[in-house]
Amino acid sequence: MDGETFPLFPAESLFPPEPRERSEPAPGTVHVPDWLSLPEQRGLVEACRAWARPPAGLRTVRMPRGGEMSVRMLSLGWHWYPYGYARTVVDGDGAPVKPFPPELGALAVRALAEAYGPRLPEIAGAVGYRPDIGVVNHYPHGAKMGLHRDREERIDAPVVSLSLGDSCVFRLGNAETRTRPWTDLELRSGDLLVFGGPSRFAYHGVLRTVPGTADPALGLVGRLNITVRQSGLT
Ligand SMILES: O=C(O)CCC(=O)C(=O)O
Ligand SMILES: [Fe+2]
């Protein structure tokens, strides 16, 4: 061969995708790409499907000023509504919230160990983490979530976030202001994101999802996000 080229394949298809590295985009926030295996992701999607059924199933959330959120939501353990927690779906069908599944709690405890490793004792509320809330968001195509802080919980134990289905652009801001500095991260199906310690009350949101990026094997249209939290409520 004398330098002749045969453009049979676009160059990028000759190489496997770059492995994505774990990162700590802000102190206390850890992103672990591809943490969940495909079977684990499928199991969680199936669980979400069951939780989504009424009563106390997936609902459209109306904000106090009258607008509707574009994501659809369901809660486990404690019902989140704007802005508080209740034991019943006070802004929906009035049914008792579904129980918080112990398996989800065990998964979240594992997630903290994975994210923080030997530093875990330095993170507020990480030792003896006893999560009791699951919030599931479904993002149909075009849905997003504005910048906000998760602050209806009474304690500063970390939040564990699991992403399933379509990728999204997640904006992680800071705890002081709604403005910069922020970091935009791509969250893909199976990714783990933990925000605790100095990041626990950081502003964050979802700028957009990327339709069609989910593995068809998941059988999911759009994106699901599960956050696991500890309420500090009794
Ligand atoms: O969908 C996400 O990745 C974030 C969800 C979120 O911020 C929330 O449920 O409070
Ligand atoms: Fe949030």
UniProtKB/TrEMBL annotation:
| Molecular-function GO term, any one | dioxygenase activity
Which PROSITE patterns does the UniProt entry name for this protein?
Answer: FE2OG_OXY
Which top-rank group of organisms is this from? Bacteria
The answer on whether this UniProt entry bears the keyword Metal-binding reads: yes
Query: Which Gene3D superfamilies does this entry report, sorted A to Z?
Result: Alpha-ketoglutarate-dependent dioxygenase AlkB-like
Q: Which cofactor does it need?
A: Fe(2+)
Q: SUPFAM superfamilies in the record, alphabetically?
A: Clavaminate synthase-like (SSF51197)
UniProt keywords, alphabetically:
Dioxygenase, Iron, Metal-binding, Oxidoreductase
Q: What start and end residues bound the annotated signal peptide?
A: none
Q: Which Pfam families match?
A: 2OG-FeII_Oxy_2 (PF13532)
Q: Region annotation Disordered: residue ranges?
A: 1-31
Q: Which PANTHER family match?
A: ALKYLATED DNA REPAIR PROTEIN ALKB-RELATED (PTHR16557), NUCLEIC ACID DIOXYGENASE ALKBH1 (PTHR16557:SF2)
Name of the protein described by the UniProt record: Alpha-ketoglutarate-dependent dioxygenase AlkB
Whose protein is this, by species?
Answer: Kitasatospora cystarginea
